[in-house]
Design a protein that fits this description.
5-stranded mixed β-sheet, alpha/beta, Nucleotidyltransferase, domain 5
């Protein structure tokens, strides 16, 4: 919960989730001449990386961490990184799903963060899911990665390109029900 000394006007809401990239990649629609059946490539190997991402629509900012696994250790590093993004004197409520590594008692939540778990089986309440969909559709779909380093490079380029667009986080991830007044 929020520390007693924090008022609502000092609180930022962040949404957090992770995406696996590389293993059995995404297929999407492509343009092709009418009457043709184009072939697209799809990842067949089982090498993958995890992008742990968090967005703050009100501030139009984002933070991501690339890890080889999604586990409690990765989540701890991610929370520590989000905490560094929060302005001095402010507090962040980080909305998370109920993955085991998000709810682990081994996590040490930084003092300027509070975790707020979503109801079970409700990904539609997490706007980061739309970020992943955009990245899959525009950067990661219909391709094969050479190796782990190629996955890492692609993830970094995609994330940086996406969040570098002006106002993209605010437009895509703002929710009326997540505004503190």
């Amino acid at each position: 919960m929020l520390p007693k000394a924090v008022s609502f006007d000092q609180v930022d809401i962040w949404f957090q989730d992770e995406a696996r990239v590389g293993q059995r990649g995404t297929l999407t629609r492509i343009w092709a001449p009418k009457g043709t059946r184009p072939r697209v490539v799809r990842q067949q190997q089982f090498t993958a990386a995890y992008v742990l991402g968090a967005v703050c629509p009100d501030k139009d900012c984002a933070y991501a961490l690339l890890m080889p696994d999604a586990n409690t250790e990765a989540m701890q590093h991610h929370l520590d990184g989000i905490a560094q993004m929060v302005e001095m004197g402010r507090h962040a409520v980080v909305v998370i799903d109920r993955a085991a590594w998000h709810m682990s008692k081994q996590l040490k939540c930084p003092d300027n963060l509070s975790l707020l778990p979503l109801p079970a089986y409700s990904p539609e309440l997490n706007p980061v899911e739309q970020v992943w969909q955009q990245l899959r559709d525009h950067y990661w779909a219909n391709r094969c990665f050479k190796d782990y380093d190629d996955i890492v490079t692609s993830c970094c380029e995609a994330w940086n390109s996406f969040v570098g667009q002006p106002d993209v986080i605010r437009r895509l991830c703002s929710r009326q029900w997540a505004v503190l007044t």
